[in-house]
Amino acid sequence: MAAPRIVSLLPSATEIVAGLGHAGNLVGRSHECDFPGGLGELPVVSRPRIDISVPSAEIDRQVKQAARNALSVFEVDETMLAELQPDVIVTQDLCKVCAVSLGEVEQAACELTGRPVRIVSCSPASLADIWTDIRRVARALGAIRQGKALIDRLTLAIEGIESQTRLIEPKPTVACIEWLDPPMAAGNWVPELIARAGGVSLFGEAGKHSPWLELEALLRIDPDVVVIAPCGFEIPRTLSEITSLTGQPGWADMRAARDGRVFVADGHHFFNRPGPRILETLEILTEILHPGRFAFAHEGTGWVRL
User: Fold this and answer.
1) By C-alpha distance, which of 175, 305, 170 is closest to 239?
2) Whether the Cβ atoms of residue 30 and residue 91 lie closer than 8 Å to each other
3) Whole-angstrom Cα distance, residue 98 to residue 11?
4) Which of 187, 258, 190 is nearest to 219 (CA)?
5) CB atoms within 10 A of CB 57
6) Fewer CB atoms inside 10 Å of the end CB: C or N, the chain?
7) What is the pLDDT of residue 100?
8) Torsion angle of C-alpha atoms 148, 151, 152, 155, degrees rounded to 10
9) Which helix (H) or strand (E) holds 215?
10) H/E element, 297
11) What angle in degrees, to the nearest 10, is found between the helix axes of 11-19 and 144-165?
């Protein structure tokens, strides 16, 4: 059987495809797919409908305006997609802000002629869902054995970390922030990762969508640790906008701020990318929550102390 021609419209799916040994079969990618290395030569088949270079508050305004107009934040280049003649398109159906929506892909796929196209949609809200998505992609690519091996490797490593962190007491309370302005707490798989890293997640709920976060509630509950990892933002981008949050009255009086336990993490490559590097996200959290006990060498690249 000929190797499938794959288009990935989701960064985490691209990493799953690579983890299954099929990176060489990718023929197209989204504008945000940037890992593993070597993807730069692939044709880009998506683009944002909004200006993502502006500050967080303006991005939020544009996203809400798009929602009011019943528009996806991203669009598919249908002409390019048709030229690539994919056998498999991997997309998502979790968040219209994170990547091209399933509806956009289905509409674009209808324009393709001459060959059947299999659309694989990822919709993870938990670690278990991430494993399900890996299996789903593996099945579409005829890589079931590789999918099982990838999941086994990840779960074994995660269980190894958790076997150590569960013994640590007391467990620090943690506020993980997924957006700066307006503030949003991290939900979905992040609270589960915090628990496995030996912390107590205060705001987001495992398996549930990320909730908006009132600053007054954050100050009142006064967490031991604050991790700031905005969706789509690497560390330098977050640091350039951080005062929209840390400059608020009362921030400096929080326990985490006084104790030097406010951290900025790479929300683009790790926290908000539900693929194989979810393991690295757990490692980052473990290093942050238990300084001196774990050393996975992510400090300075995956996270920094504010």
Assistant:
1) 305
2) no
3) 9
4) 258
5) 14
6) N
7) 53
8) -160
9) helix 215-221
10) none
11) 110
**Mean pLDDT across the chain:** 91
Instruction: Report the distance separating Cα 13 and Cα 71, nearest Å.
Output: 23
- What are the DSSP E strand ranges found in the chain? 6-8, 26-29, 46-48, 74-76, 88-92, 118-122, 173-179, 184-185, 200-201, 225-228, 262-265, 303-305
Q: Rounded to 5 degrees, what are φ and ψ at 122?
A: -95, 140
At a CB cut-off of 8 Å and minimum separation 6, what does 136 contact?
120, 122
Reported as type and span, the H/E element at residue 219 is helix 215-221
Tokens describing residue 148 = 């099982």
Tokens of 53: 């270079």
User: In this predicted model, what pLDDT tens digit does every residue of 214-271 receive, in sequence order?
Assistant: 999 999 999 999 999 999 999 999 999 999 999 999 999 999 999 999 999 999 999 9
